[in-house]
Write a structure and sequence with these properties.
38% of the residues lie in helices and 16% in strands. The protein is α/β, with parallel strands linked by helices. The chain has one domain: NAD(P)-binding Rossmann-like Domain (Rossmann fold, 3-Layer(aba) Sandwich), CATH 3.40.50.720. The N and C termini lie far apart (36 Å).
């Protein structure tokens, strides 16, 4: 029987204090998981929305921040959602903004995956990794060079880690959200011309809600996706289909 239940599982969700991360954490909890809500700022609000949850402070401006997180505790599901964005014309883009985004979005993601897998393999068990990619894993975008590079990298890392770990019982997949109403997209939504252009291209005719991403996360974390490895699922209201 196909099961979407996460009863008895423990999930760690990074960037769980707000937006997509919060929605995923709540959904995993509703599916039965105990959820570790990690963020550089307080996740108390998210924890309060989940029956079984705890808070963990992790600041991925240090890409190695999660190196000791999996020692001495069992974590079955890792959702790498933490991310930042910097906007400027490519001709003006600074090294500081480049490094900040790459450290959080790509370097931290890889080394968190590595720490998770080391612990799981040492314990002789499998696990589930869900990375949050982007439409800009497939497209170029404008004025976000480091974000685009990092999200292309997330898609690539998802595939190589799946290649290496699938036979060892670790499923590695990614979700590429479309235009979702979060803090990261606030500037776009407040720009009347950009907002109009974006909405005109989305077949669904609306910005996505963080909860729109949560169902896919539950699927990829659950036994129902047991034969899914190295996939990047776009959840975008039809954007890439147009």
């Amino acid at each position: 029987m196909i099961s979407f239940s996460l009863e008895g599982q423990t999930a760690l969700v990074t960037g769980a204090n707000t937006g997509i991360g919060q929605a995923i954490a709540v959904a995993l909890g509703q599916a039965g998981a105990h959820v570790i809500c990690a963020g550089r700022s307080s996740c108390a609000e998210t924890v309060g929305l989940i029956d079984s949850a705890e808070e963990l402070t992790l600041d991925f401006s240090d890409p190695m921040a999660a190196q000791d997180v999996f020692a001495g505790r069992r974590v079955d599901i890792l959702v790498n959602n933490a991310g930042i964005i910097r906007r400027a014309d490519s001709v003006e883009f600074s090294e500081e903004d480049w490094d900040a985004v790459m450290d959080v979005n790509l370097k931290a993601l890889f080394f968190t995956c590595q720490a998770f897998a080391k612990a799981a393999l040492a314990a002789g068990r499998g696990g589930r990794i869900v990375n949050i990619a982007s439409l800009l894993s497939f497209q170029g975008g404008i004025r976000v060079p480091s974000y685009t590079a990092s999200k292309h990298g997330v898609a690539g890392l998802t595939k190589i880690l799946a290649n290496e770990w699938a036979a060892k019982g670790i499923n590695v997949n990614a979700i590429a959200p479309g235009y979702i109403a979060t803090n990261n997209t606030q500037a776009l939504r407040e720009d009347a011309d950009r907002n109009k252009a974006i909405l005109e291209r989305i077949p669904a005719g609306r910005w996505g809600d963080p909860a729109d991403i949560a169902g896919m996360a539950v699927f990829l974390a659950s036994p129902a996706s047991g034969y899914v490895h190295g996939a990047v699922f776009n959840v975008d209201g039809g954007w890439l289909a147009r």
